[in-house]
Design brief:
Layout lengths: L4 E6 L3 E9 L2 E9 L3 H19 L5 E5 L28 H9 L3 E5 H12 L8 E6 L3 E7 L2 E2 L33 H5 L1 H8 L12 H19 L4 E5 L8 H13 L11 H4 E3 L6 H11 L8
Parallel strand pairs: 1-4, 4-5, 6-9, 9-10
Antiparallel strand pairs: 1-2, 2-3, 6-7, 7-8
């Protein structure tokens, strides 16, 4: 193998690490529980040290991490995790720490942006340059591809904290520590479902009224994204979206919300426009390989 890259998908519950020639050539992979930064990253470094002894040196490492992150290379806090409720991680200089441990360049982006790139390259968004990827799980996050380029301004999109109108019959106080019941994460994330209904999402039956309400909120989010960034397609993944019955419900509600307005000439094929992930749990790590191979410079698919 001519070039060897590392890839890390850093999540709130686990860090997935891999080495290989790219997203389709993975030589080794491991899963490390997310604890405090020192313990977690010591285990990450140990994995890569073992693999480089076996396979050779790394060219670079792509890191897709949970946020919020400072991903602006010109910023004085570039590479740091910003205000997060994850204990011990707020203000932590992730890139500097990994560069010290691994002594290779680190290409940084969010975990959802990495999944977005992988789905665009290999999965449900293949051939689609105008795309939104949403993950609905412990939190709600999203990445946007516009004209083939990742949307990144002063920071990364925080789609999970877009405000949506609350359903008039919903008395839930919200699960977001910052916005309560005002943002979509506070109303429709996995913790919001569990707190509202007293049961984890995966344990609720398909006919439970939770899913009607969930589809209502996710349709509002999708509608807002169709109207603002005009993607051809929205891909939904994450643990909550394992409930396959949500997809037709969301499509039906999106069509009703649009009411014929703001759709491409001839109308929209809602089944093609709102789709599940194709790569499942592999999207994040495969996207991390993509940014590693691009050295964090080329943002275009």
């Amino acid at each position: 193998m001519d070039k060897l890259y590392g890839a890390i998908e850093g999540g709130g519950t686990k860090f997935v690490c891999a080495v290989g020639g790219g997203g389709e050539q993975i030589l080794a992979k491991t899963v490390i529980p997310t604890r405090d930064p020192e313990v977690t990253l010591a285990s990450v470094a140990q994995f890569f040290q073992q693999q480089t002894q076996r396979h050779g040196p790394l060219v670079s490492v792509g890191l897709g991490n949970f946020g919020p992150l400072d991903i602006d290379p010109k910023s004085r806090t570039y590479g740091q995790i910003m205000q997060t409720p994850k204990p011990g991680w707020a203000g932590f200089d992730l890139v500097a720490d990994l560069m010290r441990r691994l002594a290779v360049p680190i290409a940084l982006d969010t975990d959802v942006n990495c999944a977005l790139l992988a789905e665009a390259q290999y999965g449900a968004g293949r051939g689609c340059g105008d795309l939104v990827y949403l993950t609905v799980g412990t939190g709600i996050g999203g990445g946007v591809l516009s004209g083939g380029w990742r949307v990144r301004g002063t920071g990364h999109p925080e789609i999970g904290h877009l405000f949506v109108p609350k359903h008039p019959d919903d008395g839930f106080a919200g699960a977001c520590p910052f916005h309560g019941d005002q943002c979509i994460e506070g109303l429709a994330s996995g913790p919001a479902i569990e707190q509202r209904w007293g049961c984890p999402a995966q344990n609720l039956p398909a006919a439970h009224p939770a899913w009607e309400l969930q589809a209502h909120y996710l349709a509002l989010l999708c509608h807002n994204l169709f109207m603002t960034v005009a993607p051809v397609r929205i891909i939904l993944g994450g643990g909550v979206m394992a409930q396959a019955q949500l997809f037709p419900m969301i499509r039906t509600r999106c069509a009703a919300l649009a009411n014929g307005y703001g759709v491409p000439p001839g109308g929209r094929d809602w089944e093609a426009a709102i789709r599940p992930v194709a790569l499942g749990g592999e999207a994040g790590i495969r996207g991390a390989f993509l940014i590693a191979a691009a050295d964090g410079v080329n943002d275009r698919v």
